[in-house]
């Protein structure tokens, strides 16, 4: 299955790093986040990548251009486009009926082949991996007198958030105006 990775955002929350490099090239353990993500997919048998590039995309292309382990196609979609526009720019390179989609800065211990099996068994159009949302802050409840009545340090919230891993149909199978 092909893997499409969105690598176009500006990474403003990591601006001290991303002034010089795009967020997917920020290193974790002496290798870029994107390298770790692609390695995770490759270990699961998925070695065909389409990288949708935007902000400082030429640096990503430079880093991976001589890769011998993976098949990589680069799609320069521009800096000021949204995720759907990046996918539309890449649609002619997507040859499988179903493909894997990730953000270029998301890492997880998700077993992607288990997700693919779930997707096939569920017989749905799209499968999105969701993870528990954990507040990055301590949450305080106060009473009417502004006295603290409860404090929870970085609690797990009652919502899920996008885990960054999606299985989706080939874009040509999506009705016009629905992307």
Plain-language structure description:
The chain is an alpha/beta fold and 179 residues long. It has a single domain, classed as Spore Coat Polysaccharide Biosynthesis Protein SpsA, Chain A (Alpha-Beta Complex), CATH 3.90.550.10. 23% of the residues lie in helices and 32% in strands. It is built from 5 helices and 10 strands, in the order βαββαβαβαβαββββ. It has helices at residues 15-18, 33-43, 57-64, 83-90, 112-122; strands at 3-7, 27-28, 31-32, 48-53, 71-76, 98-103, 127-134, 139-142, 148-152, 156-169. A 6-stranded mixed sheet has the order 5-4-1-6-10-7, with helices on both faces. Strands 2-3 form a two-stranded antiparallel sheet. A two-stranded antiparallel sheet has the order 8-9. The chain is globular, with a radius of gyration of 19 Å. It starts with a strand and ends in a 10-residue tail after the last strand. The relative contact order is 0.18. The mean pLDDT is 87.
Low-confidence stretches: none
- The CATH architecture comes to Alpha-Beta Complex
Helix content: 10-25%
Strand content: 25-35%
Sheet having the most strands: 6 strands, mixed
Question: Over all CA atoms, what is the radius of gyration?
Answer: 19 Å
Per CATH, the class reads Alpha Beta
CATH superfamily: Spore Coat Polysaccharide Biosynthesis Protein SpsA, Chain A
Average pLDDT for all residues: 87
Strand tally: 10
Overall tally of structural domains: 1
